[in-house]
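Quick one: structure tokens for this chain, please?
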Amino acid sequence: MKKSIHRHDVIRDIVRREAIHTQRDLVSKLQELGYECTQATVSRDIANIGLLKSQDGLYVLPEDMRLYHMLSEIAGEIHVAGHSVVVRTNPGIASGVADAIDNVHIEGLLGTVAGDNTILIIARTPEDAKFVKQRLLELKRHFKRI
């Protein structure tokens, strides 16, 4: 069981970082990383993780899909100030967007605080804050392809 849980984490990382179109692509990436697995194993992993397919055929994590939708249709400006990132949203929905951001697990992000139309994201370092902003912008752009 431990092997499959660890493999699921690796699959999540692969799907977030690379364009994966097929199970065969995913098997190849896993094998490059030293995982011995078959397409049947990866098929079960995909079902267990709940991966979705975008309109252009890419595998996407369900929590990422939620954030893609929210960022592309709701979030407005994104600014960095030191260790912090500020995201503006339409009134009344900042907490939902903050929850989606928390669930994506962006490297360097410590947590979020949401008001009515503003989200404050705290990062470990100013460099991490810049990375968080960049990642949010990438997610926002990526959604336009989905």
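The chain has a mean pLDDT of 87.
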